[in-house]
Amino acid sequence: MNELSGPGRPANPSVQAAVVASDLGLTFPGKRAGEEVRVLKRIDIDVRPGEFVCLVGPSGCGKTTLLNLLAGFQKASRGEVLVQGEPVHGPDRRRIYIFQEGGVFPWLTVGENVAFGLRRKTEMERQRIVQHYVDMVGLTGFERVYPRQLSGGMRQRVELARALAADPAILYMDEPFGALDYFTRFKMRADLVRIWQQERKTILFVTHDIDEAVQLADRIVVLSPRPASVQAMVAVDLPRPRDANLPAYLHTRDRILGIMGMDLWSDKATRSDDASTNEGHQRQGSLTHSLAERSGPGHTETQG
Ligand SMILES: Nc1ncnc2c1ncn2[C@@H]1O[C@H](COP(=O)(O)OP(=O)(O)OP(=O)(O)O)[C@@H](O)[C@H]1O
Ligand SMILES: [Mg+2]
After folding, report:
1. d(Cα 129, Cα 173) in Å, to the nearest integer?
2. Which of 180, 205, 222, 277 could cross-link with 232 by S-S, CB 3.0 to 4.6 Å?
3. Adjacent-strand bridge partners of 25
4. Are 91 and 85 in contact (CB under 8 A)?
């Protein structure tokens, strides 16, 4: 893959990358003897400190597996992962993983959950940090409440607060809002952007939702179907919070859908579906018009 220019790449090459994966490959043993399931073909990624990177790709392509490798939860069959210049051999307190659901401890209150990684701090310091992150995620007043008394979105906020309170270098998030309803997801994304702008943690975020990726990321890694390789890297150079109605936003989203073979609005797709009907011709006309309006920069891209 070619080097990418623009906002998706480290401005200063001498700054040590937060995460580097080189020639990463993974093959699982199959169900029968001698059988193999090749999940990752060849992955090369580097992430700069403080960068927000989204990993997208078709279902089952190996997104979770790749995130596990990058976090040190799983061993690669080939290649290497460096985090802050050090080879990764296992999980580490500096790297925190947030799952889709069920990450909070049900037997602890919100405050106790957030304080979980702070046992070495003094009581005063612990209270200060807990309050800071409880406030940041919008749970002020819920400190003494148990997770079962909260909504799904609130529980994800607890998990985010707990992760941030532990002050990790890197946050790994695997479809963290996947179980939430549309409106809660919307709010959580906006809040995550605000929090990331305050905290500037490096975030590696897996999602199958292209809109979510374009809302959040500095850079989007588009993975191919299994065995996954990096199909494209798309840098999203749009100010935050991002207006999903802007032509540049829509252009970036459509580009990614196109790379993933889901360019449903293209001439080709419209022709094959609708060419035999008048409605189809009319629709093709209006869509071509709306695509023509969606011009302008918003991303730089390399394809692998
Ligand atoms: N421990 C394992 N042993 C064998 N195969 C595995 C193992 N873990 C994952 N796989 C296979 O690897 C492939 C990729 O799985 P993975 O969960 O990483 O995909 P994904 O892109 O995260 O999928 P989804 O979009 O559904 O979350 C799948 O075909 C899965 O069956
Ligand atoms: Mg997954």
Report:
1. 22
2. 222
3. 78
4. no
- Helix or strand run (H / E) with residue 271: helix 267-274
Q: Partners of 223 in the beta sheet?
A: 230
Q: What mean pLDDT comes out for the span 8-36?
A: 82
Q: Could you read off the pLDDT of 104-161 as tens digits, one per residue?
A: 999 999 999 999 999 999 999 999 999 999 999 999 999 999 999 999 999 999 999 9
Burial class (CB in 10 A: 0-12, 13-18, 19+), 58: middle
Backbone phi, psi, residue 148, to 5°: -65, -20
CA of 73 to the centre of ligand 1 (A): 14
Q: Count helices and strands (H / E) in the chain.
A: 9, 11
Q: Which atom of ligand 1 is nearest to the CA of 61?
A: 21
Task: Give the mean pLDDT of the chain.
Answer: 85
- Residue of 26, 36, 37 to test ligand 1 pocket, by largest number of atoms within 8 Å of CB: 37
Q: The tokens of 103 are what?
A: 């990450």
Global pTM reads 0.85
Does ligand 1 lie within 6 Å of residue 29's CB atom? no
